Structures are given as C-alpha cells and as structure tokens.
C-alpha cells in the first residue's frame, strides 16, 4: 500500500497547465525504465500527478510505487476539470445518533466548497455505509481546528473527528494525542515535503545534510517527524525550527533567504506555491521529510469509543476491498491536480 512509496523521492514540482495533458482514458503498458513519474509526465506533462495513475491502478500495481512491474497495463484516467457529482450520503442527517466533527480549508481532504466536501469526508461517509449495521450520522463543521481535540472531542461533545495525523505513539507514548485518543486505521497517506529555493544545491539524500539548517513550519503544525527517535533534530539542536504564522509566511521567509527550507504536506505546499506564483522560485526536493497517515479520532474517555472504532475500522476495511475506495480517491486527486 501507500507506505512503500516514501522509500525514494518521487516528486518534481511543476505548475503545468491542464492543456499539457496529451491523452487520457487510454491504456499504457509498462516498459523497462518506466516509473509512475515518467508515465505521469508522458500523459499529463507533470510528474507530480503520478498519484492519480497509482490509485486508478492500485490492484494491478500491487502497492508497488518504486519498482513497477514491466508488462502491467495501466489505465490513464482523465484529470477532472469540473466537479463531477459526488457520492450521495444517505446516512447523513441533522439529528443522528453518531456525531462527527471536521473543519474546512483543508482541501482536498475536508472543505465545504470542495466536491463532496472533500476526499476524507467522502471516504468517512463510505466507510460508515460499509460498517456493520450502518447507522445515521451528523456532520458539524468547526473551522477553528484548535477547538476540535480539546475541548470538543475530549469532552465527548462529538463522537468522532477527522482527519487527524497520528504521531508515532510507540516512540512517543506521552504525546497528548496518543494519551487521550483512539485512532482508526489509516484513511489516507500523505507525504510531507521539503521546499527550498530554486538553485539551492541541497539534495537532502541523507538526514545529516539538514544539520545546521533552519526550516520553517507554521505555528500549531505537528513536529513529531522532525524529532523522531532516529533524528532528534530539535531535541539535540541539530536543526533550527522557525514557526511562522502561516504557510505563506514560511514561503516568504524562504524567498527572503531567512530560512533554508519550508516543510509542509505535499498538497498544501503545491497549492501555496501555485497561489503565490512561486513555481519559478521554489522547488521540491525528491526525498520527503516523512510519510504521515490521516485517521478518524475518538476520545479514550468516550464510553462507546471502542465500539465506534471497531465499526468504523470494519467499514473502512470493507471499503478498501472494493472499487469504491479507488474511485473516490482517484476522482479527488484528478480534480486537485487537474485544477
């Protein structure tokens, strides 16, 4: 599955217009020397759109993103240029037994203005539909994410929240998320990327290449990947972290030469570079900082927490065994990269 993909760098950021898409809805037979990056570049004119092809062919690729098997036939889907009709949500009701909490401004995962209100929203809905004896649920949008974990979920005002990144609870069992919340099985995996000024010679092939560097990540964002057991960049003072007010502020510091790199998830980084017109000033390094997983989260103090967790995980497992999971993911990725 997706966890295999961070073994090697797989992105070269390019703000390529949709017009560069040469052909789609065709079949490509993998040849020697092919990679998902090269196939994406061939058909979409942009290596960064490889994930659209991956999710459309996940079964055929058997989860392999690096050494793709020669001879496998890949379906090359068309990128979305308009909001195709989202999946219906028959279980979604205003007054329901299970109360879900999410927030907007997190496209393509959760956003009230995005198709289907986001990739994660559609996956959670579909998993609940596939759960044993499905029951109705309500969905509340709270755009102040700082209110979600504490107090709203911790006080059991809501039964489940999404999507949340799970820290490494084995390495850091005292992390407040690990102490206070149950995590579902992963809904989706994302890469955390490192962005530097175009022309910078930094390659980041090994961790120690960042020693002595200053990185920027916005205030309030997780930092566990920077200080994991095999790095301890922050604890040992090997890397300096600047926590600016926003992603935009981080990129401004980068272009002003006040930090050496910006680290954000691949979707947010791509979108901000595009919005700020920085495609010719900022580049993405091939090797990611980390791979993170998105989850549904439930308070450990919830008296039915483990029941809710079991039901959701069972539904998610069933969903992933069907074509519907692939179809939802492929549609949203196609829409995101096709903008």
Mean pLDDT: 88
How far apart the termini lie comes to 26 Å
CATH class of the largest domain: Alpha Beta
Uncertain runs are: 1-19
Features:
single chain, 339 residues, alpha/beta, Membrane-bound Lytic Murein Transglycosylase D, Chain A, D-Maltodextrin-Binding Protein, domain 2, 3 domains, 10-stranded mixed sheet, two-stranded antiparallel sheet, 12 strands, globular, disordered N terminus
Question: Which helices and strands appear, and what pairs or packs with what?
Answer:
Layout lengths: L25 E4 L6 H9 L5 H7 L1 H4 L11 E4 L21 E5 L16 H12 L6 E5 L6 H6 L6 E6 L10 H5 E3 L4 E10 L16 E3 L23 E3 L4 H9 L5 E5 H11 L5 E3 L5 E10 L5 H16 L2 H16 L1
Parallel strand pairs: 3-4, 3-5, 8-9, 8-10
Antiparallel strand pairs: 1-2, 5-12, 6-12, 7-10, 7-11, 7-12
Structure description:
The protein contains ten helices and twelve strands. The protein is of the alpha/beta class and 339 residues long. The protein folds into three domains: 2-76, Roll (Membrane-bound Lytic Murein Transglycosylase D, Chain A), CATH 3.10.350; 99-188 and 300-327, D-Maltodextrin-Binding Protein, domain 2; 191-291, Periplasmic binding protein-like II (D-Maltodextrin-Binding Protein, domain 2, 3-Layer(aba) Sandwich). Helix 4 (119-130) crosses helix 9. The two termini are 26 Å apart.
């Amino acid at each position: 599955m997706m966890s295999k993909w961070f073994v090697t760098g797989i992105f070269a950021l390019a703000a390529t217009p949709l017009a560069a898409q040469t052909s789609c809805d065709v079949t490509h037979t993998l040849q020697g020397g092919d990679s998902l990056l090269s196939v994406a570049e061939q058909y979409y004119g942009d290596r960064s759109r490889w994930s659209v092809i991956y999710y459309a062919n996940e079964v055929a690729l058997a989860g392999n993103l690096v050494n793709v098997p020669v001879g496998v036939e890949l379906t090359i889907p068309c990128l979305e240029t308009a909001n195709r009709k989202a999946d219906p949500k028959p279980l979604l009701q205003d007054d329901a037994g299970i109360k879900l909490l999410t927030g907007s401004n997190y496209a393509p995962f959760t956003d009230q203005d995005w198709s289907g209100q986001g990739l994660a929203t559609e996956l959670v809905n579909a998993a609940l539909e596939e759960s044993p004896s499905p029951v109705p649920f309500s969905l509340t949008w709270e755009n102040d994410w700082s209110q979600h974990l504490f107090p709203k979920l911790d006080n059991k005002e809501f039964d489940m929240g999404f999507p949340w990144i799970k820290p490494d609870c084995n390495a850091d069992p005292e992390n407040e998320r690990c102490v206070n919340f149950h995590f579902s099985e992963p809904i989706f995996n994302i890469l955390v990327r490192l962005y530097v000024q175009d022309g910078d010679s930094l390659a980041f092939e090994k961790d120690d290449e960042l020693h002595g560097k200053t990185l920027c990540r916005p205030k309030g964002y997780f930092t566990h990947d920077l200080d994991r057991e095999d790095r301890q960049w922050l604890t040992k003072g090997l890397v300096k972290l600047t926590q600016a007010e926003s992603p935009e502020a981080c990129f401004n510091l980068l272009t002003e030469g006040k930090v050496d790199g910006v680290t954000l998830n691949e979707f947010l980084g791509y979108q901000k570079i595009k919005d700020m017109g920085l495609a010719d000033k900022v580049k993405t390094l091939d090797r990611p900082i980390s791979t993170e997983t998105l989850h549904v989260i439930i308070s450990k103090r919830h008296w039915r927490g483990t029941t809710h967790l079991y039901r959701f995980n069972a539904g998610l497992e069933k969903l992933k065994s069907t074509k519907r999971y692939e179809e939802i993911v492929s549609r949203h990725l196609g829409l995101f990269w096709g903008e």
